[in-house]
C-alpha cells in the first residue's frame, strides 16, 4: 500500500481545450512539479494527440497526459465555437468525474472556463483551485455581469442592449458589450450557448473554488486586483527560466528562426504572430505582406496553414517570399517565448491574446496591436492607453489595415523611446513580482501550500 505521508501530492489539471488555455496551465503544471507535485494533465482527445505530436514524450516524469472525449465526432468542425462548447458541456464533466474516481486526487486545478466540472469534483469531496488564463480585468468583468444586466448593458441571454463601451473602474480597460467572451459570430443560438457556458463557469468558480489565480501580476492590473481581491496573480507564467521547453504547444515549432535571429542586428526585427484563432481574408493578408515589405526591415512572421481564407494565390505568396528572401522569414509556428526574449526583436505585431501580451511584457518588447476578437480589444487598451507600451493599427473605412498604415505604425513604435522605456519599466516590475518576496511568488507559494493540505 502507498505511504500517503511521503507520496508526492497529486492534482488533476484541467485546461479548456485551446492553445491559449493549454499553454499557461501546462506552465503552471511544470512549476507544480518543480515543487514536488504529481500532475495528471487532462485534455480532450484531439488536443491530447497534438500535445503528443509536439513534445509530449519530453514532459517531466511528474506530468501524465490523459485524454477524454470532447463530444464531437472525427471530422466535425471544432471552429464552430457554439457547437463545440455545447458538446463539451454535455460530455466532459462525466468523464472528468470518472477520472477523479480513478486517480483519487484531492484537488482539481481547473481552468475557470471548465467550471462545468467543478460541481462534480466537489460532490466527490475533491477541492477546487481555479485558474483564469486571461486578465484579472476580464474575469472581474465577468463577475460583474449580473450587475451589468441590471444596469441595462445586456439582456438575460447576453445580447447587448447598449452601444459603446463601459468601464468597471478607473485604471481598468473599457469593455464593449459586443466583444464579450461569449460574443461569437454566427446564429443567435450560438451566442446564447456561449453566454450560458461563460455564466455557469464563472459562477462555478465563485461557488466551488477555494482559490482563484490568474496569469498576471500586480503592477500590470493594479486597479483590477484592488477591486477584485479574491483574484490572485501568479504570473507572468513560464515553465523555466531558460525557456528550454516547448510547453503546451499544439503545432510543431520551427526553431530555425532562432538561428536566423542570431544573425540580425540588435533591436531590428519586426516579429508578427496572431495566435491560433485569427484568420485574415486574402485582401488583408496581401496588405499585411506588402506592408512588411514596405518597412524594409527584417521580419519574422508566423503564418499558420489556416491563417487565411478564400482564394489567396500560392504563387503570389511564393513570389512575395522570394522577394523578401534574406530580409524576412516566414514560419508556420515558432518558440515564441524564446523569440520575444531575443535581443534582435524590436517590436511585436500581435493579436493581443493574453498569453502573448504577458510574454511580450515580461521581455520588455513594444507592441503594435492588431486585436481580432473578444478580450483582445481590452488587452489592446491596456497596452496602448494604460501601460502605454505600444500603438494600435487603424483599419480604413473598408475595415482593411493598409500597407502604409502597417509600415508607418511599425516605424512609430520602434522609434518611440518613451514606449521603449515604459516597456522596460513594466518588464522590470513583472520580474520583481516573480522574484523572492514578490507578490506573484508569494501567491504561488500560497497556492502550493493549499494544494498540499
Automatic annotation (TrEMBL):
Q: Does the keyword Transferase apply?
A: yes
Keyword Methyltransferase recorded: no
Q: Which Pfam families match?
A: UDPGT
Which CDD domains does the record cross-reference, listed alphabetically? GT1_Gtf-like
Q: Which domain of life is it from?
A: Eukaryota
Provide the GO MF annotations for this entry.
Answer: transferase activity
What the entry lists under InterPro entries is as follows: UDP_glucos_trans
Which UniProt keywords are present, listed alphabetically?
Transferase
UniProt lists the family membership as follows: Belongs to the UDP-glycosyltransferase family.
Q: What is this protein called?
A: Glycosyltransferase
Amino acid at each position: 500500500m502507498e505511504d500517503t505521508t511521503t507520496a508526492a501530492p497529486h492534482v488533476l489539471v484541467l485546461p479548456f481545450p485551446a492553445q491559449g488555455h493549454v499553454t499557461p496551465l501546462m506552465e503552471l503544471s511544470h512549476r507544480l512539479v518543480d515543487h514536488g507535485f504529481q500532475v495528471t494533465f487532462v485534455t480532450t482527445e484531439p488536443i491530447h494527440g497534438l500535445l503528443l505530436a509536439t513534445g509530449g514524450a519530453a514532459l517531466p516524469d511528474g506530468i501524465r497526459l490523459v485524454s477524454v472525449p470532447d463530444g464531437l465526432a472525427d471530422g466535425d468542425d471544432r471552429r464552430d465555437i457554439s457547437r463545440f462548447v455545447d458538446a463539451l458541456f454535455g460530455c466532459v464533466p462525466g468523464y472528468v468525474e470518472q477520472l477523479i474516481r480513478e486517480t483519487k486526487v484531492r484537488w482539481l486545478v481547473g481552468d475557470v472556463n471548465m467550471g462545468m466540472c467543478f460541481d462534480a469534483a466537489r460532490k466527490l469531496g475533491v477541492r477546487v483551485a481555479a485558474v483564469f488564463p486571461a486578465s484579472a480585468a476580464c474575469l472581474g468583468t465577468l463577475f460583474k455581469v449580473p450587475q451589468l444586466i441590471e444596469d441595462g448593458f445586456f439582456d438575460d441571454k447576453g445580447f447587448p442592449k447598449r452601444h459603446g463601451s463601459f468601464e468597471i473602474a478607473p485604471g481598468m480597460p473599457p469593455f464593449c458589450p459586443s466583444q464579450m467572451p461569449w460574443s461569437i459570430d454566427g446564429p443567435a443560438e450560438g451566442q446564447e450557448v456561449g453566454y450560458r457556458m461563460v455564466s455557469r463557469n464563472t459562477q462555478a468558480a465563485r461557488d466551488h473554488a477555494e482559490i482563484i489565480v490568474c496569469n498576471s501580476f500586480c503592477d500590470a492590473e493594479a486597479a483590477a486586483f484592488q477591486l477584485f481581491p479574491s483574484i490572485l496573480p501568479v504570473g507572468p507564467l513560464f515553465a523555466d527560466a531558460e525557456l528550454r521547453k516547448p510547453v503546451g504547444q499544439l503545432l510543431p515549432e520551427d526553431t530555425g528562426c532562432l538561428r536566423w535571429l542570431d544573425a540580425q542586428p540588435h533591436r531590428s526585427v519586426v516579429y508578427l504572430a496572431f495566435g491560433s484563432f485569427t484568420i485574415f481574408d486574402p485582401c488583408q493578408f496581401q496588405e499585411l505582406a506588402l506592408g512588411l515589405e514596405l518597412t524594409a526591415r527584417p521580419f519574422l512572421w508566423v503564418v499558420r496553414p489556416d491563417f487565411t481564407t478564400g482564394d489567396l494565390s500560392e504563387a503570389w505568396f511564393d513570389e512575395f517570399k522570394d522577394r523578401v528572401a534574406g530580409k524576412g522569414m516566414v514560419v508556420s509556428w515558432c518558440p515564441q517565448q524564446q523569440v520575444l526574449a531575443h535581443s534582435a526583436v524590436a517590436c511585436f505585431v500581435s493579436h493581443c491574446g493574453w498569453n502573448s501580451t504577458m510574454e511580450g511584457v515580461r521581455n520588455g518588447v513594444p507592441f503594435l496591436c492588431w486585436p481580432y476578437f473578444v478580450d483582445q480589444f481590452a488587452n489592446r487598451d491596456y497596452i496602448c492607453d494604460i501601460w502605454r507600451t505600444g500603438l494600435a493599427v487603424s483599419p480604413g473605412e473598408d475595415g482593411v489595415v493598409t500597407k502604409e498604415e502597417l509600415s508607418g505604425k511599425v516605424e512609430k513604435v520602434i522609434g518611440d523611446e518613451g514606449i521603449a522605456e515604459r516597456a522596460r519599466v513594466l518588464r522590470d516590475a513583472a520580474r520583481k513580482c516573480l522574484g523572492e518576496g514578490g507578490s506573484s511568488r508569494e501567491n504561488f507559494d500560497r497556492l502550493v501550500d493549499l494544494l498540499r493540505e
